[in-house]
Histidinol-phosphate aminotransferase (Hyalangium rubrum), 385 residues
Amino acid sequence: MMLARSGLLVEPAPSLEVIEPAELSSNENPLGPAPKAWRAILESMGRASRYPDRDCSFTEERISQYLDVDPGNIVLGAGAFGVLRLIADSFMKPGSEVVFADPSYPMYRYFTHRKGCTPVIVPLTPDYRHDLLAMADAVGQQTSVVFVCNPNNPTGRPVSHEELIEFMDTVPEHVLVVLDEAYFEYACGPDMPDGVDWVRAERNVLVLRSFSKAYGLAGLRVGYGVGPEWITSALRQVRDPFTVNCLAQLAASAALEDRAHLEAVRGLNEYVRDEMCAQLERLGLAYIPSVTNFVMIQCGGDDIAITEHLKDQGVRVRHGSEYGMPGWIRVSTGTLEQTHRFLEELASLITAQDQEQEQGPTEEPHEEDAHEQEPEQALLVSMGK
Ligand SMILES: *Cc1c(COP(=O)(O)O)cnc(C)c1O
């Protein structure tokens, strides 16, 4: 009976999309968890009365086999965020300097402040990539940790192999380099450096990976770090027992086995991303070419108002202001249907704005007129191309 039930439930429920908003703000996986992970979750529900493996050894071993490294090189956490926290607790000494890019993943700044460290912030290059030369220059005697988000959230751009090799050769050994590869499964390919290579070379590096993005398990909170043993053992020392629950551990192990699902996820992502970019070009909107499952789009006007307007239409996206990029919105690739919904709403905003411009102001607006202006109209006026 259990099997029959799980057999039914492994199919994602498409009817949900009709009533739910198109959730394109958090880079989640629109296809959901892999069928094998789904089944593992259902079949392990009865274990909810038992404590999980406190050392996460089963799952860490599975991941180590998957990556062909030693089990001691893996440290599991409650999401990549949970591993970031372990890094903060064991390596970000109060008063030390922490180097990271801007705009990038906001949690580097969050932990830097929380730990009483000094942020050393390096702007991205004009083409929205990490400026690794400048970041290497920013590293000094006081630096404890450098974060490299590759590919970068929110800009979706990777650094090249050569750039990362040069950077890793320049950074002094006392500095821990954290390579945040939360989007690795989407981006990986011949041009994309694999941080685990530096772990194999025994460098002072920790690679962050997540089950929240391509593996579709964001709600279960599971991710991992890959590093040389002296780093992973330090992280394990500050990890609380039982931080990764049993469903998350078993689902993560099972997800790794489901290569077919991962391929489907990658295939859909590329298809939908191409479609989105082609439409954006037709609309005359600039965007940053992305190797991830999200695209940063230049909407020109008030990104916060546009995000609010889209939310009212049932489409959730992230405003760039949150990342210090006003005039931009970050949009995850959803299903084709969700992405079309987003593009239709965006197109109608732009069409309305064009009409507004064509008609032009017939006369100078009076003070009273400005007050009477519909909120939507105010939004459209503010939106440039
Ligand atoms: C989503 C994300 C994470 C965190 O992922 P979790 O595993 O859900 O904690 C880490 N880094 C980057 C760059 C992300 O975008």
Remarks:
- The chain has two domains: 51-257, 261-358+372-382.
- The longest strand covers residues 143-149.
